[in-house]
Structures are given as C-alpha cells and as structure tokens.
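Hi support team,

I'm filing this because I wasn't sure whether my run with magnesium ion finished correctly. The job status page said complete, but I'd like someone to confirm that the output block is well-formed before I use it downstream. Pasting the exact inputs I used:
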Amino acid sequence: MSLTSLARTSSPLLGAYISFPSPFSAHLLSRLSFPWALIDMEHAPLSPATMTSLVHAIAAGSRNATLPLVRIPSHAVEWVKWALDSGAAGIVAPMVQCAEEAAALVRHARYPPEGWRSVGPFQAGGADVTGEGGVGAYLAKAGREDGVDLIVMIESVLGVENSGEIMRTKGVSGVFVGPVDLRASLGLPGSHGEEEVYMKALERVIRVGKEIGMPVGIFSTGGEALKAHVKMGFSFMLVTGDVMALTEGASAALRISMQI
Ligand code: 3PY
Ligand code: MG
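And here is everything the job wrote out:
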C-alpha cells in the first residue's frame, strides 16, 4: 500500500528524514518502524546509486513496514526514473508551482496510458523483501492506484494560489508542504510560526486537500509544530531524521556529561 492510501485511513503517519549517504544509518532508523522515510536528494548530494542502496536498506531493515520515498532534486526525467526504478514507494517533487509542472511529473512518473515512464525497474526487487519481487510484480504494483506515490510539494505563494489545479492533476497522489520555503516566499523566517498570512496559506492547502480527498503532509519537527499540524488536518509528517537525531542525541549526552 502506498503512503497516501495509508494516510486516508490511519493518520498521522510519522516519518524520518534521511540525508546521510549511509545504508547502515538508514537501516538503523527504519528498524524503529517509522511508517515512512524520506531520502532527500534535493538537499543532500546523494548519488542515484547511493539512493538506491538506501531504499533497499530501509526495506530490508523494516521488512517493508517503513515505506521509503525519495525527494528528487529537480523535476527532470532522469531523477524521476532513477528514484522510482530503485523500487522506492514513491517520489516527492519539490517546488511545484502550477498544473503544467504537475502534469510533466505525471508523464515522467506514470506508465502508459497515464504517462510515458519507460519500463526498466530492474533494481526494484531489492526493495521487496517478501521474496515475491521481480519486474512483473513491480509493474503490477505500479499500475495500481494505491501502488506508487507521486507527491508534489507546495512551498511557495504561487504554489498555494494554484493548489487546486495542481492537486486536481490526474496522477498526483498527494501533497507535501515545505514550511521553510513557503515561509521564505512569504517573507517570513524559520520553519514554524502563527502569522496570519502563513496560517491562511496552510489552511487553504488543507481545505483543497479535503475537498478533493487528497492527503496533505508537512515537514513538522519540534513538538509544538507537530501538535498544531495534526490539529489542522495534516496526515503525514516528517518529525525527525539522521541529522536531527545525531545532533540532538549527542548534544543531550554532552549536556548531561557536563553536569557530572
Ligand atoms: C521546506 O520546508 O521547504 C522543505 O522542503 C522541508 O522538507
Ligand atoms: Mg523546501
């Protein structure tokens, strides 16, 4: 089942952010049984080969309980192909601002007749630890409506204005809000706040999601932001990750040691 189809029935689904080029650390995080993980090729210089190993490490570490999704660095077709051919449970495309961009992503990510994705998911079996893998099984899964996610990011003023047409693009299965870029585009600093203009933007995306029946997720680190987002109706969130866990864990240990 895809992340967005799960999110329709059980939410919130808390996810882990992965940016270290280490299958071992991805494997460790996935053993904690997060429902999903986001491998970030947008803000980490991960090669396609490393990303593929991370997808496989997560699937193996969690026996597929953690769905590995990949955030691609741009909308170009090669990123979409490499990410999906790894066997990832879906892709997250940054900074989608209009329906034309969403439609181009659908063409890259969906097999005919919906799109023009080329057939060759030879690495996808590595993400299937059930032993039933193989190209045929993957193609059957990718052809199902709840098979593979195409999640578009709304993270700009223009994206919010066009959120209705973006979300109504056939083939898009979910939306993820990037609060930092959205706030930057509104002239606001940081990752969370309660400014009216920002709250209205979030509420608009949530409202459109509800109208269409499309799950909406958000980056949501820090307890306060998470509580607010759950209350607003977001259904899948990134709540921690390799960078945060390492730095927060190490600095907490350092603080305790300094008190001894
Ligand atoms: C943002 O907040 O802009 C993000 O892309 C978070 O993932
Ligand atoms: Mg962003």
